[in-house]
Amino acid sequence: MFSGLPDSFSGTVTITGSDPFVAWTLNAEFNVPSSLPPGRLDWPISHQDRIRLVYNRVLDAALRFLTPLNVSLTAPAPVLVVSAEPVINAFANQNGTVQINLALSELISDSPSELAFAMAHELGHIVQCNVGAPILIPTNTEQDADMWGLIFSLVAGFDPYASAGTLAKLNMALGQAGLLDQLFDNFSGDLHGSFNQRIALVFSEMQSICSQQQVASACAAYKSLIHPHLPPIAPLLKPELEEGLLKRAPVLSPAKPE
């Protein structure tokens, strides 16, 4: 189509027009065409920018999810604080502040989905504060926040399986003395065993979460569009079962305890 170009040609073809049109930019290097820009021109996103981009997406999903349930986070919406403290940590305050330390981002931000789970987990703590108690797992505050983290990150379009990666990396970081604050998220005790238990719980509860009417469509979309080759036993809603599950799925309706 483009005669006269030398074999070593490397360049960009841009389609333009005066009327409404669809344009496709095609890049070719070493006879390999691509619609993506050359990698050497793509500067890595900063931790600050990635944290804020992921947080805004998770917060928007959480607000949309909680509104029909008549559960609020805070008014105005929770404020994100990015801290340079040299401790791998994240926490939420009852006054509506979510703090993410750059040290935590540096550990997990190579996966935006892992970062999203950590942020969604902290928003789960704010839900607990506003309601007055854990809702999904009444006997354990941290595990309950994990469930909210799974829901919010999944509804926001992130990989739900990344929750295991977040917890596993935090667990792995315990192998370096002084690297991880022993009071991570105000959770003391046997952190090695606790993280392992939390990973196991996330997987065991994923199918139950996906059977909820408000989450079923997000689970089905993930299974169908993102990971259709998941093993049949994987704890995510199968698209072909969506209709049947929705008919009998309980509706998540947290209420303030008496």
Question: What is the count of DSSP helices, taking H or I runs of 4+ residues?
Answer: 8
Rg calculated over all Cα atoms: 22 Å
Biggest β-sheet strands, sense, barrel: 3 strands, antiparallel
Structural class of the secondary structure composition? mainly alpha
Number of strands: 6
Q: Strand-residue fraction?
A: 5-15%
Portion of residues in helices? 40-55%
Report low-confidence residues grouped into runs of 5 or more: 176-184, 241-250
Order of helices and strands: EEEHEEEHHHHHHH
Write down the domain tally: 2
Note the overall shape.
elongated
Average pLDDT, to the nearest integer? Answer: 77
Strand order of the largest sheet: 1-2-3
Give the termini separation. Answer: 73 Å
Which features would summarize this protein structure in a list?
258 residues; mainly alpha; 2 domains; 3-stranded antiparallel sheet; 3-stranded mixed sheet
